Every structure is written in structure tokens, then in C-alpha cells.
What does this fold into?
Amino acid sequence: MDTLKDIFKFLKARRKYWLAPVIIILLLLGLLLVFAGGSAVAPFIYTLF
It folds into this structure.
């Protein structure tokens, strides 16, 4: 979690606000793959990518 805090501190300090949606979408996609990997929905999720 410290890494995420550092990333958002960097975004705030450098005023790179346009990177925030990109980082959030990548995090959400990563979480989707992690949580769907062990479920019965996994074959359907992997076909999306």
C-alpha cells in the first residue's frame, strides 16, 4: 500500500492528474483478474482479454 500512496503523492506533487484514471483502471483490471482467476467465471473473463 505504500507504493500506491507514493504514486498518488507523485501525481499530486508533479501535477500529472491525467495519469490517475490510467492507474486506477489498471488497478481495477488487475483486481478483476486476481479475483476471477479462482472462480467459475475465469474462462469468460480471460476471453475478454
